[in-house]
């Protein structure tokens, strides 16, 4: 909600503010419940905090990305398959830097591991495609709420 307000330079509607506050409170409660007393005593709490910070940064970056996607849809039309292709195709060259590690891990994996990978990739592909389709039907704030 804050990213949308900042980028669009207009205050949000009151029902979206209420929804944003309720979701934020729920996410904070769920996140805090993961920080158990045992983690605080063992010194793992710092790593937990770093993970939470990474997730928060990811949420804000995702909101900015959604706003850019919304702007692109308004200029060029809504084509979720094309966006899905480019977001995946443009990321592939970055994997060249870790080619040896990926190759070694792939060659050293058993058929059971490959089966689990395939079983995991299929629903992830369906989910990703559905999210891109949702982004053509709803605004960025709604999509971010749903994904959160």
Describe this structure in words.
- The chain has 148 residues and is mainly α.
- It folds into 2 domains: 1-77, no CATH class; 78-147, no CATH class.
- It is built from 8 helices and no strands.
- It has helices at residues 2-8, 14-33, 37-42, 45-76, 80-89, 99-107, 111-137, 140-147.
- α5 crosses α7 (111-137).
- Its main location: membrane.
Top keywords for this entry?
148 residues; mainly alpha; 80% helix
Largest sheet: none
Query: Into how many domains do the coordinates divide?
Result: 2
Structural class: mainly alpha
The stretches of 5 or more residues where confidence is low (pLDDT under 50) are none
Please estimate the helix content. Answer: over 70%
SSE succession: HHHHHHHH
Q: State the end-to-end distance.
A: 12 Å
Mean pLDDT: 84
Helices and strands, with pairings:
Blueprint: H1 2-8, H2 14-33, H3 37-42, H4 45-76, H5 80-89, H6 99-107, H7 111-137, H8 140-147
Helix pairs in contact: 4-8, 5-7
Q: What is the structure about, briefly put?
A:
The protein has helices at residues 2-8, 14-33, 37-42, 45-76, 80-89, 99-107, 111-137, 140-147. By secondary structure, it is an all-alpha fold.
């Amino acid at each position: 909600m804050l990213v949308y307000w900042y980028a669009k330079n207009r205050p949000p509607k009151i029902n979206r503010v209420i929804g944003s506050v309720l979701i934020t409170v729920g996410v904070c409660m769920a996140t805090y419940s993961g920080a158990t007393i045992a983690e605080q005593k063992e010194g793992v709490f710092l790593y937990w905090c770093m993970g939470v910070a990474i997730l928060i940064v990811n949420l804000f970056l995702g909101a900015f990305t959604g706003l850019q996607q919304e702007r692109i849809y308004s200029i060029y039309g809504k084509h979720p398959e094309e966006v899905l292709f480019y977001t995946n195709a443009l990321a592939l060259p970055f994997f060249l830097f870790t080619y040896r590690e990926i190759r070694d891990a792939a060659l050293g994996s058993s058929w059971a591991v490959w089966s689990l990978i395939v079983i995991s990739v299929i629903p992830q592909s369906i989910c990703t495609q559905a999210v891109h389709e949702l982004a053509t039907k709803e605004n960025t704030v709604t999509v971010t709420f749903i994904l959160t």
